[in-house]
Amino acid sequence: MLVHVGVSMKLKKQVTVCGAAIFCVAVFSLYLMLDRVQHDPARHQSGGNFPRSQISVLQNRIEQLEQLLEENHEIISHIKDSVLELTANAEGPPALLPYHTANGSWAVLPEPRPSFFSVSPQDCQFALGGRGQKPELQVRAGAGAGVGGVSCCRGWALSRVPPWQMLTVSEDLPFDNVEGGVWRQGFDISYSPNDWDAEDLQVFVVPHSHNDPGEGPAGPGARVWGRLSEDRRWIKTFDKYYMEQTQHILNSMVSKLQEDPRRRFLWAEVSFFAKWWDNISAQKKAAVRRLVGNGQLEIATGGWVMPDEANSHYFALIDQLIEGHQWLERNLGATPRSGWAVDPFGYSSTMPYLLRRANLTSMLIQRVHYAIKKHFAATHSLEFMWRQMWDPDASTDIFCHMMPFYSYDVPHTCGPDPKICCQFDFKRLPGGRINCPWKVPPRAITEANVADRAALLLDQYRKKSRLFRSNVLLVPLGDDFRYDKPQEWDAQFFNYQRLFDFLNSKPELHVQAQFGTLSEYFDALYKRTGVEPGARPPGFPVLSGDFFSYADREDHYWTGYYTSRPFYKSLDRVLEAHLRGAEVLYSLAVAHARHSGLAGQYPVSDFALLTEARRTLGLFQHHDAITGTAKEAVVVDYGVRLLRSLVSLKQVIINAAHYLVLGDKEAYEFDPGTPFLQMVSPYYISWRDPVVWDESRSSHDALPERTVIQLDSSPRFVVLFNPLEQERLSVVSLLVNSPRVRVLSEAGQPLSVQISAHWSSATNLVPDVYQVSVPIRLPALGLGVLQLQPDLDGPYTLPSSVRIYLNGAKLSIGRQAAFPLRVMDSSPSDFAISNRYMQVWFSGLTGLLKVKGQARVGGEGPEKGTGIRRLCTAIPGPMCACRLTHRGLGVSINSSQADSMAQLSALTSIRRVDEEQEQQMDMKFLIYGTRTSKDKSGAYLFLPDSEAKPYVPKKPPVLRVTEGPFFSEVAAYYEHFHQVIRLYNLPGVEGLSLDMAFLVDIRDYVNKELALRIHTDIDSKGTFFTDLNGFQVQLRRYLKKLPLQANFYPMPVMAYIQDAQRRLTLHTAQALGVSSLGDGQLEVILDRRLMQDDNRGLGQGLKDNKITCNHFRLLLERRTMSHEVQDERPTSYPSLLSHLTSMYLNMPPLALPVAKRQAASPALRSFHPLASPLPCDFHLLNLRTLPAEVSVPVSANPHHQVLALPPALLYSALCSGQKCGRPSIALALTVFQDTLPSADAALLLHRKGFDCGLEAKNLGFNCTTSQGKLALGSLFHGLDVVFLQPTSLTLLYPLASPSNSTDIFLEPMEIGTFRLRLG
C-alpha cells in the first residue's frame, strides 16, 4: 500500500462531482467564447487589415483560437490544483494491499488520486528555437562566412543562433600540430614599424600571483615542454600554503603598492584573502580598502576559489561565487567587474553565463587546446563575445579574452618567444633560486642597457599585439605563488618601471606602457573601440560552446581528471545536497520561528555551521580539488574538511526539522547535548552500504555506516525530509532490529512495507538487523512522519524472497526464518525482475542484462522474434505476450555463458508490443591500460595504450536476486566490483528508470582504468550529448581524426544518445568522464589507478584509491512522431522526466529517526512549506539566509580601543582618505556578522529548458508548467513575502526597486536571484 491519505467514499464522490462540474463549466465557457469569436462584429472588424480571402480569415480565427486555448489551459490548471488539494486533504480508509499475480510477480494497485501532466504549448517552443513563441527560422545573411573563413553552422543558420559554434571549429580544424618556430604551437608573426603610426600601442602589464588554495601547481608555468623551470613538485595544504607563502605575498602587497601609486596587483582567490584578513590589523585593513578604492588592487572574479569547470555542479559554482562576492562587499566594499581563470583545465560555457548574471562584463581564459588557440590567433579571434547557445537576444554575451600562448607564466605572456620573455622575469635574475631554461638570464635594467632591453621587449609586445583586433595589449606578469618575498616585488616593479619610463619617453615608438589591472585593460579596449563596457566592439566575433577537451601539447589530453579520485567526487555531491537541504530547512525554520514570536528559542547559532559548510564546499570546487589532482596528503585534508562540514550540516538539518514538525511550537526546546532527531540513509541496496548517504562515517575515506533503529514496546517515530520542490513518491528504507514491524502513517493508518534481510556480503546476513522499505509520498520541500511499532506478522508486512546462485563457489549461506531463501549452484536459465513499466532479464551466469535468442532490428528470416517466443514459454499467464502492464514494453533475452564470461557483457532487446523494432542494449566492462613509452596516464592525462580490452573475471560471480512488492534487485559480486541493478515497483519517476550501482575496488590494479560501456542499436550517427555542470547540455561529435582520449568529456549529471525514435540517458550521482566511441554507445570511466606522475606538476600517481560507489539511473524514452529530433541544432534539452530523474538520484529523501526518550514524545505533524508545488520546470536552487547587519558605535581613529570588535566584523569604512591619525570621532557603523542570520534570504530559482518531444503518457506523477510565471506571494504556506527585490546573481546589484507585486517571470534556462524576506 502506498502512503496515501485515504478518501472516504462520500467525500470522494463530492470531490469528483465538484471537479467534474467545474470542468464542464470551463468547457462550456470555451464553447461560448468560440461562438462569440464567430459572431462578434468587433472581432471581424479588427481583422479588416487582412485581405478578404478564405486563407486570411482562417489565419485570423486560428490565432484567436490559440489565444483562447492558452486561456483555457490556465483555467484547467487551476481546476487541477483545486481537485488535487481537495483530494490530498481528505481522509478515509487505506488503499488496497499489493498482491501476487498469476505468474508470481508483485502488482501494486494504482493510487486513487489522479496524476496530471499538463505542459503549456508555449513552454514547448523554447526547445524548438523560440522563447515562449513560435520560432522564426529565418536564414541569417552571410551566415556561412564565419570568422577567419570557418564555415558557420554547417548548412543551417537560424536568426536566433550565434554565428560561430565551437563544435564547428573543432570539426574543421586539422589538429596537425605543425612546428611554429619560436612559438612552437603557433606561427611566425611579422609586422611593420609603421603599423602604429595612426594609433599608439597601449600596453597594460598586470602583476598577479596565482595561489592554489590547498593543492599543487599543475600550472604549465612550472614546466617548459616537460622540464621544470621551478621546483614545483611540493604540494601543500591550504593552511600550510597560507603560513609559508600566501600571507607573505599579501603583507608585501600592502606595503609595496603604497610605495608608488603607479603600481598594480591582481588577486583572485577570496578564500586565502579572507583567512589573511582575519589576521591583520585595522590599520592594514584600512590600507587595503584604499588600494581597492583607488584601483591599485583588483579582486578579479571574486569567487571563493578559481573553480574547476568540468566536474563542478552549477549549485556549487554559484554558491562559491556568492560566498566570495558577499565577503568582498561586506569587507572591502568591492564589486568584481572582470573574470580571471588562468588555470582550470578547459572551460565550460556555464561559467560565462554565471559571471554575466553576476554583472561582470569581461573575462579571461587560458587553458584552451593549443590548436584552437592557434586558429583563433590566426583569425584575430582571441577576443570574442561568448554567448549561450540557447540565447536568442545576446543577453548572455560577455566579452572574453583568450591568452594566446602555452602558459600564464612570464616566459609565455610577453610575446611569442619564451626565450626572450623569460629574460624579463626579474625574479630569475642571476643568484636567485630559479633561472631561465633557455640559458639566457634576465639582466637588471640600467641607464646603459635600457634602450636595447626596451627594444627587445617592445618587439615581443608588437608581435603579440598583431594577434588581436585592437591596439590595446594585455601582458600578465606573474605565476604560481609569486611575489612572496619583498625582493621580488622590488625586482619586478623597479626594472619594469625603468622600461616603461623609457618607452613612454619616445613618441616615435608609438607605445604607452604601464602597470594595470585586468579591468583597466578592458576599459581601455572598450574606449578604443568606442563601446560601453561589456558591449560588443565592432567587428569582434561571437562564439558559443565550450572549450573541452583540453590538450597542452601533442596528444596529451587532460581527460583523465574527469574521473580521477571518484570517491571524493561522490562525497562532494553528498555535501552539496546536504548543504542545499540545510539552507532551505534552516531558512524556513527561522522564518516560522520569527513569525510565531519564538525566534529567541531557535538555535540561530547554526548559521555559523552553514557558513563554514559553504566555504568548505566552495574550497573543494577548486581546480585541483574536485578534479582529484592534489597530493595524497592534501586529499586527506580536503576529505577531513568535507566530513566535518557534512556532520555540521546534519546538525543544522536535525535542528530545523525538530522545530518544524512539532505540533506545539511552544514546546520546542533546543538541547545540543541530546538531539531530538538522528539521521539515517534513505536508500539502501542490499549489499553492504553501497549507495549513498548515511548518518555516520568512520573516516573521511570510508563508506557510510548505518544505524539500526531499536524497536521495543514504545513506538519509534521517523521524520522524512524531501529536498525537492516537487511532491515525490519514493521508497525509503530503514534498518530495524526485528522483522516484525508495523509502520503507520501520521494519521495512524497501517502502511504496507517490504521486509528484507540485511547482507554484509554476497551470502552473509547481519544478525538481528532487517531492512524495512516503505513507499511514501512526501510534500514538496516538506517533512513527513512515520511511526514504527513492533508487531506480529500482519498483512501489511510483506517479506522479500531471495535466490542465490553460487556458480560454483563453495560458500556458507546465512539464513533467517523470516525470509524465503533458495540457494542454487547456478541458474538453469535466465531470469527476470519487473515492475509496472518494464521487465529486465539477466544471465544466470553473469548477473548482467542479457539477450535471449537472435533478436535483431529489422532482421529477416525465421530468427526474427524467436527470442520473444522463447521468453513466452518461461512466463505463463498474462505476461506471455511479453508486454508491460502500463507501457507496452517487452524484453527478450538469450543465455550464452561462454561468451558472457569472455566478454562480460549483456545484450538486452526491449520491444514494445505495438512496434516491430526491438531496442537492443549491450553492457560491457572494459579495461584501459596506459602507454609503455615515456608519457603515461596520470591524475590529469588519459593516455591509453590502445582501445579498451574486455574485463575478464577469474571466476563467475555469486548472484543474489531479491524480489518484493516495492522493489526487486539483482546483485552480482565480481572481484573488482559489485553490481546492483534495482527496479522500483512504483508509479512515477522512481519506476520509470533502471537504478544501477557499482561498488568499485581496483586497489590491486597497476596502471589500469575500469570502464562501463553501454551499446545499443540507437542510430546516434556519431553524436552524443553531455551536460555542462548540471546546468545545460552540449552536443558532442566523435571525431575520428582525434585520438581516443580526445573524445572523452566531463559528465557531472548526465549523458545521452538519441535517434529519431529513442533517447537513452545515463544519469549519474557523481562526476565522471564519458564518451561515445561508436554509434549507439555510451562509455563511462568508473575509476583509475595509475602508478606514475604524468609530468604536469603533481609529482605523484593515483595510488590512494578507495572503495567507491558509482550510482546511476538509466532512462529510455521514446520520441513522439510529432516532435522529431533535429540533430543539426546545437542545443538540446532533457525531458521533464529526465530532469526529475536526475534530481531524484542526486537528492534522495533524508530519514531522521526521533531519538529514543524516556518521556513520551511530543505530537509530530508533517510540514508542508509550499502552498502548492512549483511548476515542474522550476527548480528552487537555494534559499540562502543572509548574514545580519548590526549598527554599532565605533571610532574613526584606528588606534582607538572602541575598535576591539569581534573577529567576525565584516565591513568598515574606517581610515578612509586623510582621516587616519586624526582625533577619534564617534560614529555609527553598519557591520555584518557571519555568525548571526538576518531576516533576509537569497532565493535562487532556475527555470529549466526541456524537450517536449519525448513521450509523456502515463508517467504517474503530477507535472504542470506555467509559461515562466510564479506567484511568490502565495507560494509559502503560513508565511507572507514582506519584501522582494530582484538582484544580480550574487546579490551585489539590485535589478529593480522593491515592489508590492510578488509575481515573477523567468525565461527558460534563466536563473533568477531575489532578496526575500518572509514574515
TrEMBL record:
The chain crosses the membrane at residues 15-34. Its cofactor is Zn(2+). The keyword Methyltransferase does not apply. The keyword Nuclease does not apply. Residues 556-642 form the Glycoside hydrolase family 38 central domain. InterPro entries: Gal_mutarotase_sf_dom, Glyco_hydro/deAcase_b/a-brl, Glyco_hydro_38_C, Glyco_hydro_38_cen, Glyco_hydro_38_cen_sf, Glyco_hydro_38_N, Glyco_hydro_38_N_sf, Glyco_hydro_57/38_cen_sf. GO terms for molecular function: carbohydrate binding; mannosyl-oligosaccharide 1,3-1,6-alpha-mannosidase activity; metal ion binding. It is found in: Golgi apparatus membrane. It is an enzyme of class 3 (hydrolase). GO terms for biological process: mannose metabolic process; N-glycan processing. It catalyses: N(4)-{beta-D-GlcNAc-(1->2)-alpha-D-Man-(1->3)-[alpha-D-Man-(1->3)-[alpha-D-Man-(1->6)]-alpha-D-Man-(1->6)]-beta-D-Man-(1->4)-beta-D-GlcNAc-(1->4)-beta-D-GlcNAc}-L-asparaginyl-[protein] + 2 H2O = 2 alpha-D-mannopyranose + an N(4)-{beta-D-GlcNAc-(1->2)-alpha-D-Man-(1->3)-[alpha-D-Man-(1->6)]-beta-D-Man-(1->4)-beta-D-GlcNAc-(1->4)-beta-D-GlcNAc}-L-asparaginyl-[protein]. Pathway: Protein modification; protein glycosylation. Keywords: Disulfide bond, Glycoprotein, Glycosidase, Golgi apparatus, Hydrolase, Membrane, Metal-binding, Signal-anchor, Transmembrane, Transmembrane helix, Zinc. Signal peptide: none annotated. Its EC number is 3.2.1.114. It is a single-pass type II membrane protein. Catalyzes the first committed step in the biosynthesis of complex N-glycans. It controls conversion of high mannose to complex N-glycans; the final hydrolytic step in the N-glycan maturation pathway. Belongs to the glycosyl hydrolase 38 family. PANTHER family: ALPHA-MANNOSIDASE, ALPHA-MANNOSIDASE 2X. This is mannosyl-oligosaccharide 1,3-1,6-alpha-mannosidase. It comes from Myodes glareolus (Bank vole).
